Amino acid sequence: LALLSRPLRLWALMGANKLHKKSRMERLFGFRTEDLSSWQRLVALLNRPTDPASLGIFRCLFGMLMAIDITQERGLSHLDYKYLDGAPVCRFPLFNFLQPLPMDWMYFVYVVMFLGAVGIMLGCFYRLSCLMFISTYWYIFFLDKTAWNNHSYLYGLIGFQLTLMDGNRFWSIDGLRKPAIRNAHVPLWNYTLLRTQIFIVYFIAGVKKLDADWVEGYSMSYLAHHWLFDPFKVILPVELVSLLVVHGGGLILDLTAGYLLFFDATRRYAFIPVSYFHCMNSQLFSIGMFSYTMLATSPLFCYPDWPRRFFARFPSLLRPVLPFTTTDIQTSASCVYPETQSSGKDRQETRSATRPSKLRLKHKLGAIFTLLYLAEQFFLPYSHFITQGYNNWTNGLYGYSWDMMVHSRSHQHVKITYKDGKTGEIGYLNPGVFTQSRRWKDHGDMLKQYATCLSHFLPRYNITDPEIYFDIWVSINERFQQRIFDPRVDIVRADWSPFRPNPWLMPLLVDLSPWRTKFQEIEGKLDNQTEIVFIADFPGLHLENFVSEDLGNTSVQVLQGQVNVEIVEEKKNYTLQPGEQMKLPAGAYHKVYTVSEEPSCYMYIYVNTTEAALQENFTKLFELQERVRNGTETEPLPPELQPLMSADDSDESEINATDPIVRLFLKRQRRMKEVKKRKEANVLERLNRFTVKKYYMIRRGFLMTAIALRNLAVGLPPVEQLTREVAFANMKEPQAEANDDERLKDEVGHGEL
């Protein structure tokens, strides 16, 4: 009978194919032109019964990645540092009325979010788990704008979409509890939403990269120096690697990835570059689970039954714990079925040329939501005419725009000045005081929140009715360092609205962008010890600067416009024209006034004499150390240099070193040895180091959570007990102190010394 049934099924399929021959559009897009001819047909198309397998696997992967993300990028492991009760901290919520709960309750919020993510992964009490996850996730997201980025926004969007989908129809605990939904069809719009959302992430990111700075290779030029691009540097100079591989390759991939993944003919070839791209990003940037989440979305573009074919290849012994491989799929009330079923079935759904069954309200609502949601997602990246008050040289709310890695910034100078409104006393604040973030320096809305917060804290220090002024200099995409905000405006009393242009935002001097090619020529003529900073300023403003005593041979040279240089202590003024320069005294203040009608451009040229002398001493000590090791040094070493002979035991040598230069040299040698050891480590050693680091981080998060839940349940214990518990949670892996130096690697301008 089995042998007879096979040719009979083939004959039936051939007959069905004759009755329904696929058009070119149907082969390309999966639907016919007639499916778009009326509202009823469109609703039927969006609610077409579809295999739930791919959606179920994605649900499981997304929940697992979010559970991991909560302990890392969401900050569970260091939650007590961020939300310590009673700490004088300025915060940056989306709405000012949003405030964090007491610290122990914040841990409870994270527990709810974590349980929601695990519930999504397991498909257990699915709707409730989704609500638990997105309600707490969006609360945390809106609570701190300094942590906003595109991929955190994407996680919230996907969690919201899954809440409305039938994601628990495949490989879920709910399916074991409720046989009626186990392995049941899901409507096509479930896949349409997710696929289009990922397409938007790729395509809009590519459209935003059509910006001139990206096309010309200025946005992420520093990436070309990363070791991941070493294979390309074998055949191309680093400048072309930056222009063609980093910028050109990133632009082309973002613009085309969504299309290449969608079509059958290109999908198999797209998986390789897309996967390689995300794997590289996981090493280039500290972006948590984003790369792995995007890898998990790629199979959504395949036929929905791919998990059945994939897991069917596993041994039968594993079948009880693996997803279903059977093709017998249950019907679902969420879908619209044809009135009469034909015998021909394809990979995704049952097709029929007959009229679909009666459309219900839930089917129409699903179609309406899909269309409105997708329209909103295409609109938001270009809604800058609505949210004008958020302008920061990138229009609109950054987190909604998919402007991924389009801009790089470097800050040269940040000054916060306060003025006592009653006495007129003027003073200065340490940049970043009362806050844990540095992102406020680039956003007008956060600067307003920061100034308002400072005005509330300063009266504690006998500063009445304070006025706050900010002088912030930043270079965007390798341009001149320039002011981003007007330093003459009291930000406490300044007007700000999300729906009006920011009046105290200084314009980006895009007319000076061609100077960037000249910067490279000027820098190419300098020696390794000479540093240079390019400055542009507006007419009527001045820069007050201090030349450290460490910086010898400092001079200022005018490139464009006219400036007056005032030496404060000497009470002398010097006028400089383009091409002229003057030497500046070290250890003294000076002011540079822009007196021309157009913006002035000038550059500081200086040598860090202290560091240069230190490097020279290090070179001599290294040569002496080498002579001692190879036995060519015949003269006995003085006592202060004796630690060089036992440098292998570097920790003890540093302790015994009496000369500060020798101590710094030995510390530098130890750090270089550790860096070399990490770079030369094999795969197992790297994996072990990674695992141990993650273990202690996750361990701290869960132990601190247990302490917080205990406090909520039975109250605070004695202080001595709480101190011991926190100390136990803070326990680190061996040599953790040495690894702490890695935190400084992303600081701009941080060198080996």
Automatic annotation (TrEMBL):
Ranges that cross the membrane: 107-140, 240-263, 283-303
Domain HTTM-like: 47-306
Region (Disordered): 335-355, 731-753
Comp. bias (Basic and acidic residues): 741-753
Main location: endoplasmic reticulum
SUPFAM superfamilies: RmlC-like cupins
Name listed for the protein in its UniProt record: Vitamin K-dependent gamma-carboxylase
UniProt gene name: GGCX
